[in-house]
Structures are given as structure tokens and as C-alpha cells.
Amino acid sequence: MLVILSNFLYNGVMEKFCIVTYGCQMNVHESEKLSGILLKMGLTETLKPTEADVIVFNTCCIRESAENKAKGNIGALKGYKKKNPNVIIAVGGCMPQQKGEAEKLIAKFPFIDIIFGTQNLFLFEKFLEERIKGKKHIIELEYNSPLPPENIEFNRDGKDNNAYVNITYGCNNFCTYCIVPYVRGRERSRKESDIINECKQILKEGRFKSITLLGQNVNSYGNDLNDGSNFSKLLKNVASLDGDFVVKFMTSHPKDLSDELIETIATTPKISHDIHLPCQSGSTKILEAMNRRYTREHYLEIVKKIRAKIKDANISTDLIVGFPGETEEDFNQTISLIKEVKFSQIFAFMYSKRKGTIAEKMDNQVPLLVKRKRVNEVLNLQKQILKEYKGD
Ligand code: SAH
Ligand code: SF4
Ligand code: F3S
User: What's the predicted TM-score (pTM) here?
Assistant: First the structure.
């Protein structure tokens, strides 16, 4: 099949592809996989959608704003597709994986050719082939297997000399605001030997100075494997590989951050001291409503432990303002937590209702203006803290 398709490509029908990526590092890394697939098929990459014969939107739906951005950019291609009907427009990633969303997308943008999901992007060549052969509106969202195959070549971007490596897929935590478990499925860990093999290959290339291990909650790595694997051991084993590099990781869920892990980071050379530890809120009441399964005190205790063992730890965080039921008092708790911890970086978000999540149905939603005011307050406070920190 590949041969026929390659001939087809050679005839000059499809020459260039463009991948537009939204969302987190998971998506960035999955776009590297897509890019690898398309390069192998003989296409070349362009950064301009309106130069491409195949345009892929790798989407995010973590907040409404992320969806609007993608939809705006898909809609903007209507004219291009009309003028160039042979151009193929594909939409993948988290957005179409929401219930009923693929059908809505096709209704709104009938010129979309292919819709695929978060777990089957490795089949993209097949989808493309089917579309070229005349099948209309391909919608393929089914998971083909719990884990993608191991033999796919990435076209690693190599930005900052970093290589991403997935260690887990999906999430089991069901934080009440979050869409991720619904669009990425349950948590599945890759086998440690597969991860180590990938890291070895990366290091063999010689162009990478860091490897970032990726998971929605890296700290629960291995829980589903029942073979004694855990994140701490994995980190140690990756760090023990030969070469001049640093091992980074994200994201750490505070509820699963063990003393063993802190010790490992503190005592193993080559493990990064940048720890991204999303707190989400400084109010125990809100944390409980978010189903985060730690309290403000527990969070602060972890920070203390990290700083006691790892003197130069850079702790960064994510937080959400305006979660349903967040009062001024709750918000002030977040402000005081920020002042106490002095994060190296904060990613602050206004709560955004996500369809199908538990928080969507909570009736004490916070007005947009209040959310805006709170997010600005957080960002201004953080600016001030960083200024003092840098001493200017
Ligand atoms: N797995 C990571 C987070 C992935 S999503 C973790 O648990 O830390 C990245 C960030 O987006 C989250 O940390 C949270 O701060 C934010 N986020 C998730 N859902 C959101 C929503 N509905 N509204 C606003 N921000 C949200
Ligand atoms: Fe979402 Fe929570 Fe899972 Fe992170 S841990 S992806 S915030 S459900
Ligand atoms: Fe967005 Fe999906 Fe990542 S919803 S934040 S791209 S896991």
C-alpha cells in the first residue's frame, strides 16, 4: 500500500505537510510522531498551512479558549480548501475525542477530511490513504491498543536540545475540573525496558542535552504494571545511562510525590532540580472540591521537604482561579500560599467549564469578571516576587 501511495506522492499530488499544534508537551511530542510518519511517506514539512497539501491540527480542549483558537484556525482555511480541493485537512488530538465533538466539527467545518484521536495517530498514514482513495469524512477515534507501537520514528524538534519521552499515557485522577481523563483514557505505563531503549537511542544521536519524561502524573508511573516499577527507580535508571545530559520530568502530582522520589532527585546526578508541582489552589476546601486529594498543609509540607533535601530546587506550579465556590477567603488562601512558597514560575488559569466533568454541574460558578480580577492579581503578585527574588 505504501508503494502505491508513494508513487502517488511522487506524481506530485502531495508534496508538503503542515502540523499546527496546540496544548501541552504531550501534544507537542505527538506532533513529532505525526511529522515522522509524514516524512517517512516522502512529504516535506512547511510551517505555513497555506503552502501545504496535508494540514493537520493537533488540538487541545483543556479550556474553552484552547478550543476556540483551534476552531478559529480551522475555519480560516475554508477559502484555501475551496480553491485547492485536493488539499487534505485533518483534525486530531484531544478536542475531537470529546463525546459528540467529531460530528459537531464536521457539521461546522464540512471541509474537514479526517478526524482522528489521541490514541490512534500512529495510524495516520492509513487514514490518509483511505481518504485519497475516496472515502469521505474519515472519523476514527477508537483506541486500537492500550499503548502505541514502539517502532515509530519521531521527527524530534530538538528545541533547546531536549527530547521528549512518554512514560505514561492517560490519567486516572479525575480532578473535577479536568477533561484529560475523558479524552486520553485511563493511565497506562510503558514498560521500563522500552523507555530505556528509547532514551539510549536518543543519546546515541548525540544532539540532545536533556530528556524530558512525560506523563500527566509521572509519580504514579508503574502502578498499573505490577512488576515493581516505580518512577523513582525509572528516573535513576535513565540517569545512569552514559552521556552528558539532564533528565527532566513532568508533571508531578503532589498526592503521589514520595520521600523516596525526593531522595532520588537529591542524590542522583543528572536529574533536574526543576520540579513542576501544580498546587491548583491554596484552599483546602477548594482542593477537596477539585478532588486533588491533598490539603494546603500537605502541599506546604512537600515543598518544605523538597527544599530541605534539594537546596537549589526550582518549584513551579499551575493554579486555577475561580473554581466553582471559590470565595474571597479561598482566593486569599491561594495568594498566601504563593507568598509562602515563592514559586520560580506560575501558570495561572481562569477556571473553564468542561463538558462532562463533575465541576461543570456545580451551581456556584464564579463570574468571569471576578476570575479576571483574580488571575491578574496572581500574575502581578508573581511578577513582584520574581523582581524581589532577582534583587531588582
Ligand atoms: N496533569 C497535570 C495537568 C495537565 S492540564 C496535573 O495534574 O498537574 C494543565 C493545567 O491546566 C492543570 O494543571 C490546570 O491548572 C489547568 N486546567 C485543567 N483543567 C482546567 C480547566 N477546566 N480550567 C482551567 N484550567 C484548567
Ligand atoms: Fe487533569 Fe488532574 Fe489528571 Fe492532571 S491529574 S490530567 S489535572 S485529571
Ligand atoms: Fe490539552 Fe490534551 Fe494536553 S486537552 S493540555 S493537549 S492532554
Answer: 0.95
Asked if 154 contacts 184 with a C-beta cutoff of 8 angstroms, the reply is no
With a 6 Å cutoff on the Cβ, whether 320 touches ligand 1 is yes
Q: Which three cell numbers stand for residue 229?
A: 516499577
CA distance 359 to 344: 29
Rounded CA separation 277/304 (Å): 13
pLDDT at 12: 56
Whole-angstrom distance between the N-terminal and C-terminal Cα of the chain? 63
For residue 215, the SS3 value is coil
Question: 177: which 3 cell numbers?
Answer: 475540573
With 80 as the cut, is the pLDDT of residue 9 above it? Answer: no
Rounded distance between C-alpha atoms, residue 89 and residue 113, angstroms: 5
- CA–CA dist 80, 66 (Å, integer): 23
Place of cell 481523563: 181
CA geometry: angle at 232 spanning 226 and 236, to 5°?
115
**CA distances to 169, 195, 202, 206, 314 from 234, in Å:** 16, 9, 16, 21, 21
pLDDT in tens, 95-116: 999 999 999 999 999 999 999 9
Question: Are the C-beta atoms of residues 155 and 35 closer than 8 Å to each other?
Answer: yes
Q: Is 375 in the pocket of ligand 3 (CB under 6 A)?
A: no
Nearest to 324 by CA among 283, 296, 293: 283
* Atom nearest to 174 CA in ligand 2: 8
